[in-house]
Amino acid sequence: MIAQPSTTPRPGPLQGIRVLDFTAMLAGPHCARLMADLGAEVIKIEGLEGDLIRSRPPLRNGSSTYFGALNCGKRSLAINLKTKAAKDIIYGLAKVSDVVVENFRPGVMARLGFDYAALSKLNPKLVYCSISGYGQQGSGAPRAAYAPIVHAASGFDAANLTYQAGQDTPASTGIFTADILSGAYAFGAIQAALVHRERTGEGQSIDVSLMDAMLNLLVFECQEAQFPSKRPRPVYVPMKSTDGHVIIAPISQKNFEQMADAMQQPELKTDARFATGPARVEHWNALMAAMEQWTQRHSSAEIESIMDANSVPCSRFITVTDAMKDTQLAERGSLSKIKDAAGEFIVPNAPFQFTMTTAAGPTVAALGADNTSVLSDILGMSQVEVDALRDQGVLSS
Fold first, then answer.
1. Do 82 and 213 belong to one domain?
2. What's the number of domains the chain is made of?
């Protein structure tokens, strides 16, 4: 079932942890949202114009569900970071926070006066995580980088191209793997730093790069680059059905034999070309052709049903719309219904579940919606002081 919004406090492993989230776009917001999902108090620090993703579609009455999926469960403080008053506010918040996450280009936070060197003097226990394209140090660190740039620079696109038969141009993409992957790595690194702090009382800085994240994704390819194979790596390919495509992956010997039985072609098990793993690799294209001869006579749903019944890894190729309707996701509670100013919508939960934790924050904060509550609850400012900051252009109105 889809988890419903809740107005009650959400217990979680990170309850009691306060995070200052200086991030925008995807990588940093994804990292901070995972912490919010686990009960941390995440304060999203935005400029007066707000995170650029707030204006990106899908939009409903001016509210972006794209933004909401990355930032649900956070508070929003919209502030002009270049002002002296803002610096005092950030310093005050840093003193009573546990984690800072930022994904500016290297050097920006230092120019603002909010880098690790500055904030750790105020709070030595602070865990400070920086996410960037190429890391904080080195000659390439200042380079501008978004996920598609790093996909190309890391070799990911070129490696993927080698698996595409008859294709000579790298694939276009709107799926920003490097952002989500580096955000997840940053999330994990922060948890390790918090454990270290618990043991020693010491905070520390963390440097996460999109480039490093992508190289970690290319496990086989990094090794093959050093020790090239004599033949192309065998890969499982989409196969035609009567109404679309399927993919079948009989990885093990047992899977292969189960597949042959499911196809009612037991002779494949004794065919010298396919009887063993090494033989199948040697005659890979012939095996793929034999499998597709069978799949072309059946519908995708029928193939999936037959293979599932015989414990052979298999799936139809379906759309995201159809995937979100999967009964397994509903039974697992993998999706949550949340709310912004324009109404309700559905987001995926974090890909891990805890017995005591509701998966997603129930609401998406409007830009600067928590200006007053953050400054009054945490820093003890009066309404008069907050109003004065608004009048001075330090806070959003």
1. yes
2. 2
Q: Is residue 175 domain-shared with residue 250, that is, in the same domain?
A: no
134 part of a folded domain: yes
pLDDT (0 to 100) of residue 6: 45
For 153, the 3-state DSSP assignment is helix
Residues 245 and 347 in one domain: no
Residues 78-134 have pLDDT tens digits of 999 999 999 999 999 999 999 999 999 999 999 999 999 999 999 999 999 999 999
Pairwise CA distance, residues 217 & 372, whole Å: 42
> Which tokens belong to 86?
């803002």
What DSSP state is assigned to residue 314?
E
Task: Determine the Cα–Cα distance for residues 20 and 122; give it in Å rounded to an integer.
Answer: 14
Catalytic sites, residue numbers: 179
> Does the pLDDT value for residue 320 go beyond 50?
yes
- Res 173 pLDDT > 80: yes
List of E strands, the chain: 18-22, 41-46, 59-60, 63-64, 75-78, 99-102, 127-132, 204-209, 239-240, 245-248, 314-316, 335-340, 343-348
Per the domain annotation, does 353 fall within a domain?
yes
On the 0-12 / 13-18 / 19+ scale of CB atoms within 10 A, 165 is: exposed
Cβ neighbors of 55 (< 8 A, separation 6 or more) are 64
Q: How far apart are CA 334 and CA 355, in angstroms?
A: 14
* 167 Cβ contact list (under 8 Å, min separation 6): 161
Let me know whether 250 and 129 are in one domain: no
- C-alpha torsion sign, points 270, 273, 276, 280: negative
How would DSSP label each residue in 34-98?
Answer: HHHHTT-EEEEEE-TT--GGGGSSSEETTEEHHHHHHHTT-EEEEB-TTSHHHHHHHHHHHHT-S
Whether residue 56 is found in the same domain as residue 185 = yes
Of 101, 95, 91, 93, the C-alpha closest to 71 is: 101
Please give the residue range of the domain that contains residue 59: 18-219+325-391
